Amino acid sequence: MTTEFTFLGHAGFLIGTDDEILLIDPWLSDSGAFFGSWHQWPPNSHLLDGVLQRCHNRALNIFLSHAHQDHADAATLRALSAHPRCTVFIPEYKDKYLRDTLRAMRLRTVELAEGDRAGTQMRMRVFIDDGGINHDAALFVSTPDFTFFNQNDCKIFDRLATLKQELGEIDYYSVQFSGANWHPACFEMPEQQRQAVSRKKVLAKFLNVRSGVATLAPRFLVPAAGPCFFPFLDPALSLGSGTIFVHQEELDRYLTQKGIGNMLYPRPGEPVGEQSSRVPIRAPTADQVAAWRATHPDRWEQGEDTFSPARFAQVLQRRLDSIAGIALPPDTPSIAFNWGPDDADWLLVDLAGKRLVAARQAPVPCIVVKADPRYFALMCGEARWQDIALSLRASLLRVPDVYNTVANIFLFADASNLASSLEHNFSRTQERIVIEHLGQRYEIDRYCPHQGGDLAYASIDETSHLVCPRHSWRFDLQAGGQCAASGMGIGAVRLGPACRAAAEPPA
């Protein structure tokens, strides 16, 4: 039997032989992810019954790349859990949230360490990015008929050249191409600035896709892992223009202009292969979004308002207590939380001072987070703060408007790993390397201060900005390696003219 290969929508794939089925990140429910804010485009919940039938009388293996709700969907997993020969494979993350969640659902769960192999007719190998608040993984699958490298949301672009040498020929390559972040959509700024920031982020994402294709040289690219649509939020987020949530048409135009033409655009439920559609999936129209909204409930509005300011204060204080022994930079922004119009509807977290203040006025630098009381009620419960943030239901103001890693970790980390995430951020190796640009040698930090991308494999653009291969942060070599958008830097020092024989990048 020829190995089956089916696109399930969003980031989901099905690979099947006579004896076993492998599902990758199946999201086949219609209730939405991140508290009902995100929905698959095109909708794909109608595929669930057929997937269950295809799994009948075959061993069922499921691979989940990470814990985000659009990749590890509880409703889909519950439907699959009744299968008598079901095993869920996950990366062996230091954080055990995903493992513990699956075991609580009584799913047989197997953790795979970096480079581990599993499977019989379909061999799996996992590559892990596990640092701080980032827990994600790429998967390589070798079948009797093809190979598939599913990078997904995992931003290991700095490792692709090495992986290509290990993995050999790749038939199909799938990678995220659309945004999946609350910035800039949820941040207060002029609309013109928001669109400019979005364009920069989209271009950075497209550059990474292009780089991945150039490095891995796959027979076919299958763009996936987005975008979603957001029927209960600002309609502009769903329509694919002026935001980071771009659709396949925009990616197709970019790649075609760059001379890349091996893209496949299968629809949910269709086979992946040479006969797959070469026509990108169009963004939903305003009428299609409205029609969905009219026939589906808004889960957010169904939630109860159980918010208690006193309980929220306790939650915040516990988080501060958990990092009491970690010295934070004195210029770390305070974070102000606001849930109403009155002076009493504010709580201020002084991160550097490790104290909680009932005050409306936040000193600069600061981040102001405004949301419905239900938002903060969720922050008091069992939900992960990063999942709540990805509901896109809050409004944020940064003064000044620069990214701060410590504040971001505080807002995204679980209480159980907040301290370890901060310690990981502060303990990154200070290894220095020497690079060459336009006949000059520069000494720089090897690892990006944002999330640890290996700058030994960074590119340098025509304006002498070194570009991180993971998130495309730009560091100006002519200004000491500073990143204008964040105020962070890589300590670039000009050493003088380059030698004739350039050194190889470090191993």
TrEMBL record:
Protein name in the entry: Rieske domain-containing protein
Listed SUPFAM superfamilies: ISP domain, Metallo-hydrolase/oxidoreductase
Rieske domain location: 439-507
Highest rank taxon of the organism: Bacteria
Annotated PANTHER family: UPF0173 METAL-DEPENDENT HYDROLASE MJ1163-RELATED
Keyword list, A-Z: 2Fe-2S, Iron, Iron-sulfur, Metal-binding
Gene Ontology MF, one: 2 iron, 2 sulfur cluster binding
InterPro entries: RibonucZ/Hydroxyglut_hydro, Rieske_2Fe-2S, Rieske_2Fe-2S_sf, UPF0173_UPF0282_UlaG_hydrolase
